[in-house]
Amino acid sequence: MKHTSNHWRKVFNVYAKLLFDWYQLQQLKNLPDTWQAYRDLELFQAHSQEVLLFSAPQFESDGNAIHIIAGKTYAAQLALPPLVWLDAYFAVNKEQRVIVAPYPDYRQLSNERIARLLELMRFS
User: Fold this and answer.
1) Could you point out which of 68, 69, 71, 124 has its C-alpha 20 to 30 Å from the C-alpha of 62?
2) For the range 84-89, what are the long-range contacts, defined as Cβ-Cβ under 8 Å and sequence gap of 24 or more?
3) Where are the domains of the chain?
């Protein structure tokens, strides 16, 4: 971990911001007060509802899941269902609830793009 600098900390921070905002939109009860507390107490814990996969998604597993593919380069390597590119950053397949989004770091998945991703998640 020492050789990765603070890369994973940045990735987890971006995911925590995204998911904290998502659960606020869903009016989830018992949400911590801040995204930082969410990151420390809830993010990717055994009791949480989200997972971070390092393998190709299995779309038939859960019809309620939203599959967010992190990064255009990674998405191009996967056998994904047909995608509709909405702009230079986001693509969707509504039937399979797939969203291709920028890689989760501050430069690629900025606060503005997190807001766009949340909008896409709401209508997927």
Assistant:
1) 71
2) 86/120, 89/113, 89/116
3) 2-49+64-122
